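From the pipeline queue, job 12 of 40. The input is one protein chain; the requested action is below.

Action: predict structure.
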Amino acid sequence: MTPHTVKSAGIAALVCAVVALRLATPLAAQQSSSRAASGLQRLLDAELARVPGTAGVWVKHLTTGEEAAVNADRVFNSASVIKIPVMLLAFQLADQGKLSLAERITIQAADVRGGSGVFRYHDAGLQPTLRDVLLQMIITSDNTATDLAIGKVGGIGPVNAMITRAGYDPLRLTMTTGELFAKYGALQATQRDDKTINDPTHWLGSMTPRATGRMLEDIQRCSDGARPAVASKAACADMLQMFRAQQSGARRLPHFLAVPVGHKTGDFPPVLANDVGIIYARSGPIVVAFFLNGIRGSYAEAEDHIGRVAQLIVEYFDGVQ
């Protein structure tokens, strides 16, 4: 056997050994190793370890396809982020001719809900269009608008049925905002934070970062052929415009960014601050679904941490400007 033959045989044996080791390694371990090698994954692991609470995030760059996550399949208290599938179903029904976004809805005194939003400050008898209602549900997280929209799409059941059809399980709308406020009204003040963190029967909805992010990805991509169209192109454009008009959460995803962001927040101070959306980075759109429950310490600093993570994500893809 010549030295060349010996060298070739050695290389062949090494290749076979590597292949054998790869085949013997469980798929989950291979995927874990791949994630560990990702700069984006290392970034998220390090930053979420410093978040003052229980956090989960799913990130995907829609141009390159690179993604990473922490606690992506953990179920979180959605707070108002669950209003997104209500909006999505309303636009789907409008596409099908079953609803008219131009229909005017008369807001009676009995329709008014407390908490976030602007409709509760108007006199009874205001007649916004259904599109106005959906807009306020998203950009001011209006609770009066939310319950009106839930009623217009047929209730909680049809929203959850749409979620299942579209493949967004385990997302769930649990109750209306009116029902939620009734539950909280029966609690002692000292019980409310604990219920918000630990008791899903006192949550407006339940969501995971991954399923939420995939829903946002479908709205952004719309009918590009990657997946079945979630709605018409016109409907997707309208929903994205609503996200871009967001009036809340300025200290979260958009805080430290110089690029546009379309997003939807979920709030329950001082223990919950969620923000999910699409960052329109120079390198392409990035979906970020960030859930933060059980906040410890300063609420404002927790919001800032979401913003800092978003900044680092954009710098990772775009480079530091």
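Job complete. DSSP finds twelve helices and eight strands in the chain.
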